[in-house]
TrEMBL record:
Coiled coil: none annotated. Belongs to the short-chain dehydrogenases/reductases (SDR) family. SMART domains: PKS_KR. One of its GO terms (biological process) is monocarboxylic acid metabolic process. Residues 8-202 form the Ketoreductase domain. This is SDR family oxidoreductase. SUPFAM superfamilies: NAD(P)-binding Rossmann-fold domains (SSF51735). InterPro entries: KR_dom, NAD(P)-bd_dom_sf, Sc_DH/Rdtase_CS, SDR, SDR_fam.
Length: 275
């Protein structure tokens, strides 16, 4: 069977759970060797185990993408484990919502750090390898296309009340995408964004528990959506429902395959037709 990503090496941040996990599994199923990341070691190792059980190759690189030195460690894991780097998916993140008058500097800074600064640092850390590899390949007459897929949101495209921090960060990642497409085009790197709408994960599942939360670096972040609010949101989607993590992964995959070699600097909305 001819797998489209055979021999490629991929970094996928935030891939221990949810959308990131399905992205890692999808890329691995098409032949990519994957460096799996999660804030916590156990989910990262579970994704690695699942990939290996399915016949793929993967290693874990646990830790927060916002930590000093993480980006360099992430890239080094790919180079040391698999000897190269072809695909970068900047997926890690979460939401911490509030209306602007109640939003603290901590909320603002945390969301900008994970959704915008961390991807910037990962791309910067990978730049040395990418430049040198592209130079060698072009001199040898064997150019290789590499892929960057940054995860954005419809909040970053259209805005969303109560998400000034998240919307600003995701709009920023779209700007970073377009800038990097122009900077790295000469290295044959396609840089694109996928802006997700409502995708059903642990962060967006229906929950009548107003106190439901997850722990992010010691901070309790509320998760889940009021069932009626979720029902109303789904009713506004032309396809009539929220997307699955597997469907979200499919949108990312499209930007990783050879068929997208002449597509760069684009933002693809994956939202079931909802603007």
């Amino acid at each position: 069977m001819n797998r489209k990503l055979e021999g490629k090496v991929a970094l996928v941040s935030g891939s221990g759970r949810g959308i990131g996990r399905e992205i890692a599994r999808k890329l691995a199923s098409e032949g990519a060797r994957v460096v799996v990341n999660d804030l916590d070691a156990a989910p990262a190792e579970q994704t690695v185990a699942d990939i290996r059980a399915a016949g793929g190759e993967a290693v874990a690189c646990a830790g927060s993408v916002t930590d000093a030195g993480f980006a360099e460690r992430f890239v080094a894991t790919a180079l040391e484990s698999f000897g190269g780097l072809d695909i970068i998916v900047n997926n890690a993140g979460y939401t911490w919502d509030n209306v602007v008058q109640k939003m603290s500097d901590e909320q603002w800074d945390a969301i900008l750090a994970v959704h915008l600064t961390a991807p910037f640092r990962i791309l910067r850390a990978a730049s040395g390898f990418i430049r040198e590899a592209a130079k060698r390949e072009m001199e040898a007459g064997t150019p290789v296309f590499r892929k960057v897929v940054n995860i954005s949101s419809t909040s970053g495209v259209y805005g969303n009340a109560g998400q000034a921090n998240y919307a600003a960060a995701k709009a920023g990642i779209n700007g970073l995408t377009r800038a990097m497409a122009k900077e790295w085009g000469r290295y044959k790197v396609n840089v694109n964004s996928v802006a997700f709408g409502l995708i059903m994960t642990r962060l967006t599942e229906a929950s009548a528990d107003a106190d439901a939360s997850i722990d992010i670096a010691g901070q309790q972040i509320k998760v889940g959506v009021n069932p009626q609010v979720l029902k109303n949101a789904e009713a506004s989607i032309p396809l009539g429902r929220g997307g699955t993590p597997e469907e979200a992964a499919g949108a990312v995959y499209m930007f990783c395959i050879p068929e997208s070699n002449y597509v760069s600097g684009q933002v693809l909305v994956c939202g079931g037709g909802r603007p």
